[in-house]
Amino acid sequence: MSLIEEYYDTFDEFSLKYKNVAVLMQVGGFYEMYSSIDENRGNATKIAPLINCELAVRADKKTLMGGFPLKSLDKNIAKLVEHDYTVVVLEQKSKVDCKDDSSMELEPDVEKSQRMKRLVTQIISKGTFLENPKLFNNTLAIYCKRYSKDYITFGIANTDAVLYGNIITHEVRSLPDDKGIAIDTVLKLVTQYNPVECVVVTTNGQWEKDIDHL
After folding, report:
1. Residue 212 burial by CB count (10 A; 0-12/13-18/19+): exposed, middle or buried?
2. What is the pLDDT of residues 11-36, one digit of tens each?
3. Rounded to an integer, what distance in angstroms lies between the CA atom of residue 113 and that of residue 13?
């Protein structure tokens, strides 16, 4: 598999899991990103401007590419995460590093001893980026289920990935004499925790309007 195809396959795989994905692939002393000229594959044309990276056309005349030195990785991850991207980092591993993993198929290089394999070593989002300047790095998960028109329940879990790693849970539900208390309480908790990332799940897909309130 060519380097470009490996990059595109990784991008396609993680695009199915996350809304906005930025794949950074180590190639020697640089991290690189790619897009096809017609922009049907990859998204370098979208993420390069966010990190002040210029794109150039590869020799194949089909691919746009951009890159930056290894030392700039953390800085550029921070910029991409701030723009709500989930960053997937592919690091380059030598044959020696991979010798204990028989499942790896090492790609040929100029010298056999320098053959390389690239592995996903980091997946970073706002909820997991520990260089975030905020004191707390709260991630909030909300589970919503409506049993009837006037009866809805929420399960809430909050975790701080930076300081303590503690998980705090809440459960709130509508009351016969106060149908809106459940959503009101959830909104108060969202304001209280001020999460950098919020995941909302519902088992009742027809109740999108309830999710929209959040």
Report:
1. exposed
2. 999 999 998 999 999 998 999 999 99
3. 30
Q: SS3 for 113?
A: helix
Residue type, 179: K
pLDDT at position 105: 45
As a CATH number, domain 3-124 is: 3.40.1170.10
Give me the residues paired with residue 171 across strands: 155
CA-based radius of gyration for the chain: 22
CA distance 165 to 160: 5
Helix (H, G, I), strand (E, B) or coil at 206: helix
% of the chain at pLDDT higher than 70: 78
The CATH fold of domain 138-212: Nucleotidyltransferase; domain 5 (3.30.420)
pLDDT tens column, 72-116: 998 899 899 989 999 999 998 875 555 544 444 444 444 443 467
Q: What tokens appear for 140 in the block?
A: 């909030």
Domain boundaries, the chain: 3-124, 138-212
